[in-house]
Amino acid sequence: MSPLDSLAAALTQRKQQHLYRSRPLLESAQGARVCVDGKNYHNFCSNDYLGLANHPQVIAAFQQAANDYGVGSGGSHLVCGHSRLHHQLEEELAAFTGRDRVLLFSTGYMANLGIINALVGKQDAVFEDKLNHASLLDGGLLSGAKFQRFLHNDVASLAKKLSASTATRKLIVVDGVFSMDGDCAPLTELAALAQQQNAWLMVDDAHGFGVLGEQGAGCAEHFQLDQQQLPILMATLGKAAGSFGAFVAGSEVLIETLIQFARPYIYTTALPPAVAAASLASLAVIRDDRARRQKLQHLIGHFKQQAQAQGIALMPSDTAIQPLLIGDSAKALAISQALAAQGFMVGAIRPPTVPNNTARLRITLTADHSEQHINDLVVALAQIMAELC
Ligand SMILES: *Cc1c(COP(=O)(O)O)cnc(C)c1O
């Protein structure tokens, strides 16, 4: 078989397994209503939890900064791409998260590869929850450290592995809010275990930043964990912040280590300064507009209540990520397609994004939804499930 034939065979196999991916073509701004491939939908699959991706203040900040700074950053942070706006965003994020310093990364994926690889190597061990985001798993595998996965949210399973380890440095890595499940890591217990075992704790708060905690500072605020208890706090700016990029917050030594040794930080072009300006504006909205967070919280409760009333069994989540476990990939895809035919966008998440036989509909809520949108979705879902399941 020629190399191309073998690629084509792998694609065919993926289709037969109902695991083939395609890209819906978005023809509008992000929001509760979107236009995709020429048709309007109620959008229940974005990570724009607070509706900031298309917020007037955020857009205005982006436009103003493009006028002042142009588009491209022109270089990496260490050469000549680190602008005043990047710097200001780092300082404001440090104050917001209650950490000494912050370092911006161009994406969350790169941040996770960079952080883990700068902190651990061959003599060390990394301990990851089985359901961690792909970027954390890839970071751990790439580091060359002994890579161990523990059972999801199972502190006892982790404790056993930690005490058996003779590694020089031990790094525990978890999602704060699990991206395909919506549940939170038991961070209070994990932080205590890390201290007891002299291990580091790193949390990826991609789905908590902006939405969890009174101020929206994320899981560290929600669980009241300071820099000593949670020394490596990573989050992204492309989800609730509605912008793009990522950051890590922690001690002076951590941040300087990353500047010196994190290759995905060093060898890449800095984000456009206007993107940093947009993130600064969304940070201001996150801080000042508490009503958005409260509305989202209210809608989450409303959705759960409506689903329960219709006999739809959800996974145990109190966050904006409300997955509905289906199991079979073909069935999850069929339900997602039937929802689309009724004007609802809901992603069918299938392996390898989730473990085998746990395909699911990943329903996400945003502050821009209304109770009526949610009621309509739940009614459609109940009817489709009755037909297809
Ligand atoms: C989205 C996501 C990332 C990747 O962030 P990007 O900025 O999109 O690269 C990392 N971790 C988790 C948990 C995520 O959900």
Automatic annotation (TrEMBL):
What are the residue boundaries of the Aminotransferase class I/classII large domain, all occurrences included? 41-381
Q: Which residues bind substrate?
A: 21, 133, 353
Q: Which GO terms describe its biological process?
A: biotin biosynthetic process
Per the record, the pathway is: Cofactor biosynthesis; biotin biosynthesis
Q: Which CDD domains match?
A: KBL_like
Residues recorded with modification N6-(pyridoxal phosphate)lysine: 239
| UniProt cofactor(s) | pyridoxal 5'-phosphate
Keyword annotations: Acyltransferase, Biotin biosynthesis, Membrane, Pyridoxal phosphate, Transferase, Transmembrane, Transmembrane helix
Listed GO MF terms: 8-amino-7-oxononanoate synthase activity; pyridoxal phosphate binding
Chain residues that bind pyridoxal 5'-phosphate: 108-109, 179, 207, 236
One Pfam family name is Aminotran_1_2
Q: Known EC number(s)?
A: 2.3.1.47
Task: Show the catalytic activity.
Answer: 6-carboxyhexanoyl-[ACP] + L-alanine + H(+) = (8S)-8-amino-7-oxononanoate + holo-[ACP] + CO2
Span-the-membrane segments of this chain are 265-286
Which function does this protein serve? Catalyzes the decarboxylative condensation of pimeloyl-[acyl-carrier protein] and L-alanine to produce 8-amino-7-oxononanoate (AON), [acyl-carrier protein], and carbon dioxide.
The entry assigns this protein to a family as follows: Belongs to the class-II pyridoxal-phosphate-dependent aminotransferase family. BioF subfamily.
**How the protein assembles, per its UniProt entry?**
Homodimer.
Q: Which NCBIfam families match?
A: bioF (TIGR00858)
Instruction: Report the protein name in the record.
Output: 8-amino-7-oxononanoate synthase
Q: Which organism is it from?
A: Dasania phycosphaerae
